[in-house]
């Protein structure tokens, strides 16, 4: 049975509200770390996927020149490094440095602690149900999307998740 239009409308509103709240929280958290939200997103994507810059740009939904500028800044800070791809000498492989991993861990530990404080009145079951609902929604949106770029940008395999846990 399809979702009622009123429920779908409410879900759209809740998703946009969640995006707005998360963006506002992320911007308020900038005081905690010297990296902006965009740089933090690049660090997370490199940690999860690594690989060629063009693939990372696609997953982030940005142009190669935009990513290249971010990578240059992150490289200057000592957070990422570029290596020639042995399979294609024209391409570069991007990886986090130890400093990059440390910065990402610090950022995420701070975010986790903040989220725990925001959810202080939630029990584990409620939090797990929210994780499951958000996962199901993300999966449904990926499956329903005819836009292959959306699927490429958001798909994370178990192998990539394991690499991100580095």
TrEMBL record:
Classification via PROSITE patterns: HTH_MARR_2 (PS50995)
Domain HTH marR-type, chain residue ranges per copy: 8-143
SUPFAM superfamilies the UniProt entry points to: Winged helix' DNA-binding domain
InterPro entries: ArsR-like_HTH (IPR011991), HTH_MarR-typ (IPR000835), MarR/SlyA-like (IPR039422), WH-like_DNA-bd_sf (IPR036388), WH_DNA-bd_sf (IPR036390)
Protein name: MarR family transcriptional regulator
The species this protein was found in: Sinomonas flava
Lineage: Bacteria, Bacillati, Actinomycetota, Actinomycetes, Micrococcales
């Amino acid at each position: 049975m399809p979702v009622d239009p009123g429920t779908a409308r409410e879900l759209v509103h809740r998703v946009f509200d969640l995006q707005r709240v998360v963006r506002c929280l992320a911007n308020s958290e900038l005081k905690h770390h010297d990296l902006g939200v965009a740089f933090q997103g690049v660090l997370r994507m490199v940690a999860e996927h690594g690989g060629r810059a063009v693939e990372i740009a696609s997953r982030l939904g940005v142009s190669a020149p935009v990513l290249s500028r971010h990578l240059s800044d992150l490289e200057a800070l000592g957070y990422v490094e570029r290596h020639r791809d042995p399979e294609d000498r024209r391409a570069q492989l991007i990886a986090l440095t130890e400093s990059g991993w440390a910065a990402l861990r610090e950022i995420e530990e701070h975010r986790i602690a903040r989220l725990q404080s925001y959810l202080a009145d939630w029990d584990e079951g409620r939090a797990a149900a929210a994780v499951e609902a958000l996962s199901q929604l993300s999966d449904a949106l990926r499956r329903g999307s005819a836009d292959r770029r959306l699927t490429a940008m958001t798909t994370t395999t178990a192998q990539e998740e394991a690499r991100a846990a580095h």
